[in-house]
Amino acid sequence: MDAPFTGSVFLGMSVDGFIARPDGDLAWLTGGDDAGGAPDDGEGGDFGFAEFVAGIDALVMGRGTYEVIAPLAEWPYQGKPVHVISTTLEPDPRTTLHRSFDEAVAALTTAGYRRVYVDGGRTVHDFLAAGLVGDLTLSRVPVLIGEGHTPFGPLPADVLLEHVRTRTFPGGMVQTTYRVRREG
After folding, report:
1. Which residues contact 180 (CB under 8 A, 6 or more apart)?
2. Would residue 1 count as lying in a domain?
3. What Pfam families does the annotation carry (predicted)?
4. H or E segment and range at residue 116
5. Domain CATH for 103
6. Fewer C-beta within 10 Å: the chain N or C terminus?
7. What are phi and psi of 52, to 5 degrees?
8. What is the mean pLDDT of residues 174-181?
């Protein structure tokens, strides 16, 4: 499936490939509770996230990701259109709500966005399965959590990736960016 926009993924995950514990807990990623502190890029920064967000036109996420972000004191996507896929959420004036994947894709296409940040496990998986992801930046936090949510799983076909770059950070995080290879 081709669309006029490119989906871009930027995820933090454990070394064993999970983006959240089974109950949605992110303390191992954010440094909360007894997690040993948040990952450190050595410069007091955000591992390139602000630069990434500056380069996108809009965001699309699922309900679970929205529910993590919605209560934050400062809305992290000021000035960017945020689209949320959910059948249960009530409208939020900061977002555009879509009741299905297809509805979201149609709206993103109609809006004319070029680069869309795709966030959240199920949402990333659905966009990958539909061939709508052009690049992935995966930041592996040096922890094994054993089980949890992953954006990866059964796909209709292999998704071939081309390595773009790998960066390492003083706290042990390894961040790799891949471009999705398009055959033919």
Report:
1. 133, 134, 135, 136, 159, 160, 161, 162
2. no
3. RibD_C
4. strand 115-119
5. 3.40.430.10
6. C
7. -60, -50
8. 97
Evaluate if pTM is beyond 0.85: yes
Q: Is 114 inside a domain boundary?
A: yes
Q: Does residue 39 belong to any structural domain of this protein?
A: yes
How far apart CA 18 and CA 15 sit, in angstroms, is: 8
Strand 115-119 versus strand 133-141 pairing type? unpaired
Check pLDDT > 70 for residue 44: no
Work out how many domains the chain is built from and give that number: 1
Q: How far is the C-alpha of 139 from the C-alpha of 128, rounded, in Å? A: 18
83 vs 36, residue with greater confidence:
83
Which helix or strand (DSSP H or E) is residue 63 part of? helix 63-69
Helix (H, G, I), strand (E, B) or coil at 95: coil
Residue 70 domain flag? yes
Domain that holds residue 55: 6-180
